[in-house]
Amino acid sequence: MDTQSKEDIDRLKQIGGLKSHIEKQKTSSRHSLLNAWDYISKAKLIHEIDFNMSAFCLITAEEEAATALIKLIKERGYNCPYNLNHRLHPHKAAVYFLIEAYTNFIIETNALDEILISGLNKDQLELRINLIHMGIDG
Fold this sequence. Notes:
Blueprint: H1 6-24, H2 30-46, H3 51-75, H4 89-108, E1 115-121, E2 124-129
Antiparallel strand pairs: 1-2
Helix pairs in contact: 1-2, 2-3, 3-4
């Protein structure tokens, strides 16, 4: 019988909580995030049966997540959001490299203390990266 550790069970509960949190959001990105979630679930289900289709589901999930991020950037009013188009594949593909660049920058500058995850209310979380204090303005 397959047993899971307490850490695995806690992580699964957190993931389930994240999905219910996404479902409560009132943003245009909510549907894209839920689509990404569903494609990941489908990929897990069919992985052993059809590896290629599972990979395609994961690629689609990645595009849906990128779409959600681009929509959120526009909703939050960041500078130059008109240059971003959530329907263009090159823009969605660039999201991965944007996240990688931010991650590397944060690690290289040891700026983890400049990242704030806060609960605005019971239905909304916010991630803020204070780039101005890291020497970036704009």
